[in-house]
Amino acid sequence: MKFLYQQTAKIIVLCFSIIFSSMNAYADAAHKLEDKLSNINSYRANFTQEIRDEFNTVLDSSSGYFELQRPKLFRWVVSDPYEQEIVADGQNLWQFDRDIEQINVSDLDESLETTPAAILTKEKVDIVDNYNVAEVATGKDDITAFQLSSRDEQALFERLLIEFNGDDLVALKVSDNLGQTTIIDFSEINLSPGFDEKHFQFEAPNGVDIIDNRKKVADNAPQEAM
């Protein structure tokens, strides 16, 4: 009986040591990722993007360029196969679909809060407290990769893979709750593009329909008693 007790105790200690070792490894990866992200204050790159279903079939592919200035300023421009522009001006998120001449505008914080974009665009994201992070082997000496899953049950993605070449963000892979995966590869990367202060302002062209979701939120808000 004493022997069985000793063996059981050893197994319990071993299990806890494995758990704590794993927790330390996750924390180290999270801090390392935070350091990588903190080096990106501004950014410009071309991109190619593919969306694949659960059977790895390509549903959509596109290309364009991405510009970023922390905090909360970015421009995502699709040039092929259709023209689309998504602009964050610090307060609002504008989505301009040129083919159908329609603009959607919404509150930026509400639109980005549970998306992967928040990790790249916010002034500071607490990776350690908000995400489970593991460093992933890539087989390439010059590529560092991190896999994240959000601790927020409302998050719009299940897993996010971020790849760096040195300090350069070179790829993103997002797996969502519907079984689809979005793969984005960046090229011609510039970490100091030197945007002017009005670069991320958005001006709607004349004659384009604007769907203002900010106004809808305000209209549905409870009215104060008179």
From TrEMBL:
Instruction: Outline the subunit composition.
Output: Monomer.
The UniProt similarity line reads: Belongs to the LolA family.
| Gene that encodes it | lolA
Write the protein's name.
Answer: Outer-membrane lipoprotein carrier protein
Check the UniProt entry and state the signal peptide residues, or none. 1-27
Gene3D superfamilies reported in the protein's UniProt record: Lipoprotein localisation LolA/LolB/LppX
Domain of life assignment: Bacteria
Q: Which GO terms describe its cellular component?
A: outer membrane-bounded periplasmic space
Q: Where in the cell is it found?
A: Periplasm
For whether the record's keyword set contains Transferase, the answer is: no
InterPro entries attached to this UniProt entry: LolA/LolB/LppX, OM_lipoprot_carrier_LolA-like, OM_lipoprot_carrier_LolA_Pbac
**UniProt feature coiled coil, ranges:** none
Q: Which GO terms describe its biological process?
A: lipoprotein localization to outer membrane; lipoprotein transport
Q: Keywords, A to Z?
A: Chaperone, Lipoprotein, Periplasm, Protein transport, Signal, Transport
| Transmembrane is among the record's keywords | no
Summarizing the function annotation, the protein's role is:
Participates in the translocation of lipoproteins from the inner membrane to the outer membrane. Only forms a complex with a lipoprotein if the residue after the N-terminal Cys is not an aspartate (The Asp acts as a targeting signal to indicate that the lipoprotein should stay in the inner membrane).
